[in-house]
Amino acid sequence: EAIRIGQPQSEPLKAFYETYGFKGLAKALGGDERSSPNPRPPVTKPGVKGSPANDLFSEAETALGDETPATPGASTLDYDTILTWDLFNTWLARVEAAGLVAVDTETTSLDEMRAEIVGISFSVKPGEAAYIPLRHAGPDAPEQLPFDEVLAKLKPWLENPARHKLGQHIKYDRHVFANHGIEVQGYVHDTMLQSYVLEVHKPHGLASLAERHLGRHGISYEDLCGKGAHQIPFAQVDVAKAAEYSCEDSDQTLDVHLALWPQLQADDKLKFIYELEIASSEALYRIERNGVLIDAPTLARQSHELGSRIHALEQQAYEIAGQPFNLSSPKQLGEIFFDKLGLPVIKKTATGARSTDEEVLEKLAEDYPLPAKILEHRGLSKLKGTYTDKLAQLAHPKTGRVHTHYAQAVAVTGRLSSNDPNLQNIPIRTPEGRKVREAFVAPAGSVIASADYSQIELRIMAHISGDAALLKAFHEGVDVHRATAAEVF
């Protein structure tokens, strides 16, 4: 009984976190929402149906800015699986009449530029949603409505900016629809961005949001598809289970919105920041969609040149060490550096091993040639493996361009992060790094223009603070950093 797992002791934990500077953990503990301000009542899950509910038509929700905040959630879940044109038309009429509709897609891939639709779900009212299976191909998959015809009928509503939509990570769904020739308009809310603005230190995934704000524990993707080598494609999932999963996603998205949107409305500054994030999502979607053109032959030439230099550095390192060795092995480096060559030990790892990390190499390189060769070898190898070898492989087969993904709700500082590939960390301090940038080119008849704000942080600070010295420096066009230093020293 003494070792039974119970509820954490919040007060001692919070005191410990605050004492030792664990600010994120302290904030998360302080915001523990086991007692959600908008708890969802317990729900009874009926079977996912293939026929319309008794009461399909209801008052349409009002549009953005005029929504009446409601307690999210419903006492029962009423989910439809759309397998007939009659039910499709009923739901299409309902979606077209609604002021705000949560939309979710189920796809073949997390790569938004390559993902294809397997099914689509909608929710127009808490507890009520519908799923359209389109490309399920499991052994027991029922006959489904024709893919192209369904999208053709949905397209006018999806592309109508006057029909307001919301989603969880709307940028992804916009890409998915665009892959099928549909440019979705009218996305006015994104629950991921709402959470990011309101609670930046907390997770922003839908499962976390539903648990935190609604007290709901939904079906996980792993529950449906499995894990690792045994994971099956979503198209192989049983339609009834897929429908419940997807309807739950769109239903929870609507519920989370109804919980978070009133909080944003109540704070003008946060609401303004959220509106900026929504506008940024639109711009980022277009940037990602457009991609950047790369010159594959230039990258291939650079890879060959880097390979030759890397090989030469290896031979030079062997000559200095007096033997061949693995330049990437910390153990072998330690033996060569400290046992054979007698280099000083700068620091040790947590396990007591002699460190050969970058900081140590930089220090040793000031006085010894071998660490300098190792550093140069590492830098060139990273450049080759990360960029010159891989960028061409990451080009989209249809566009010939690299389409990076900008994560909008990751960094707590508000900065974007770029991945697949990361285009923010291409080295610029070395000639080799600058050469990689030569492979990013403009199409014939166009040019690449680069622009940056001039001392934007200082200008904002001067505007907000009204500091006389800063304002004077900007108005007179003097070096602001020098003027600031003169004031201080």
Descriptive report:
With 489 residues, this protein is of the alpha/beta class. It is 47% helix and 9% strand. It has helices at 10-19, 23-30, 85-97, 147-158, 170-178, 191-198, 206-214, 221-225, 239-265, 268-290, 296-321, 330-340, 358-365, 369-388, 391-394, 431-437, 456-465, 468-476, 480-488, and strands spanning 78-81, 101-107, 117-125, 128-133, 165-167, 187-190, 292-294, 401-402, 405-407, 417-419, 440-441. The protein has a six-stranded mixed sheet with strand order 1-4-3-2-5-6, sandwiched between helices. It has a three-stranded antiparallel sheet with strand order 8-7-11. β5 (165-167), α5 (170-178) and β6 form a beta-alpha-beta unit. α18 (468-476) packs antiparallel against α19. It starts with 9 loop residues before the first helix and ends with a helix.
Secondary-structure map with pairings?
Layout: H1 10-19, H2 23-30, E1 78-81, H3 85-97, E2 101-107, E3 117-125, E4 128-133, H4 147-158, E5 165-167, H5 170-178, E6 187-190, H6 191-198, H7 206-214, H8 221-225, H9 239-265, H10 268-290, E7 292-294, H11 296-321, H12 330-340, H13 358-365, H14 369-388, H15 391-394, E8 401-402, E9 405-407, E10 417-419, H16 431-437, E11 440-441, H17 456-465, H18 468-476, H19 480-488
Parallel strand pairs: 1-4, 2-5, 5-6
Antiparallel strand pairs: 2-3, 3-4, 7-8, 7-11, 9-10
Helix pairs in contact: 1-2, 5-10, 6-9, 6-10, 7-9, 11-14, 13-14, 17-18, 18-19
